[in-house]
Amino acid sequence: MLRFLTAGESHGKALVAVLEGVxxxxxxxxxxxxxxxxxxxxxxxxxxxxxxxxxxxxxxxGVRHGLSTGGPIALLIPNKDWENWQRTMHxxxxxxxxxxxxxxxLVTRPRPGHADLAGFVKYGHExxxxxxxxxxxxxxxxxxAVGAIARQLLRAVGTDVASHVTAIGSASVSNPxxxxxxxxxxxxxxxxxxxxxxxxxxRMIAEIDRARDAGDTMGGxxxxxxxxxxxxxxxxxxxxxxxxxxxxxxxMSIPAIKAVGIGLGPAVAHLPGSRVHDEIVPRIDRxxxxxxxxxxxxNNAGGLEGGVTNGEELRxxxxxxxxxxxxxxxxxVDLSNMTESPATIERSDVCAVxxxxxxxxxxxxxxxxxxxxxxxxxxxxxxxxxxxKAFRERTRSRFMAR
Length: 402
What we know:
The chain is of the alpha+beta class. It has a single domain (3-91, 100-398), classed as Chorismate synthase AroC (Chorismate synthase, AroC fold, 4-Layer Sandwich), CATH 3.60.150. Helices cover 31% and strands 18% of the residues. It has 12 helices and 17 strands. Strand 16 and strand 17 form a beta hairpin. It is globular and about 80 Å long. The two termini are 37 Å apart.
């Protein structure tokens, strides 16, 4: 089983991620981790913090001579912005503010849509900065670093993962499923929003500009595509082992994600079964290396049936709400005196959908890597790959004409 947890807050000195369950012998490419961390910081509509941080992960354990040892892998990601928080966050509690000469204002005006108020109620904090800094999307840098290792593990079973932005506000591509994995993978790194349709991307940029000018924020959607996913991952025998549920939970755990669709997603509610279910036909190319010896003219199911991968591409869409910090704040209540007051304004983005897509890739990679380890086992990456190859050959033989 692949498990990970993160420690650290947006205002803290560093983020720390611990990943347990990686088989021994996996080559850990630190440059690839850095590349993914940089991708998370890009995208039109990002805020000032992206100009401060230049994320890089340092392995603390579980890696020796560039290879995983089989033990837990710990990664350290420094917060370069930590020094800027000293005046706000690091005053000795027993030292009066007048003696320290440091202004340490409490956050007492919760932002609608954020965890501020819920955390105030749940944990009993008087200063909601304790809530907003841990609930900050800064934490997702640790997920991306861990996801980069999961992506490297997935290469042992031939799987690759990519994403593209499919909507910002009212600007959206008409049919995301029409774009192939190769088209999505070919999107330039210089693309402002990583959208596969250049004309739609211009309309998306205009949506973000209008929101910025109005002191507002903008959400959208993105699609994750996993290519060459082994069939048979997940299970239908218990509710909590269904892979679609595990993937949806992983994506829903990303800050600001409010809905997830698989394949056609919500559209299945409005179509008859004859236009939803993917027909199964004989494979024309008998020499295909694909272990599943039948073809699907469509992939409306998004590669999952009954909670199990069926050999088609995995396609999932996540829907992100607008960011909660508005430069023209919504109404709130100052909980220190229970009077109506504008919500707190924090440094923030106007739109972070492209960054959320990178986090989405990481989360899907983590879940798929976990499912691959569950299915093929092995204490070393060589053993896992060998087991996968044997399963692939055995599956292919079952589709031979009798």
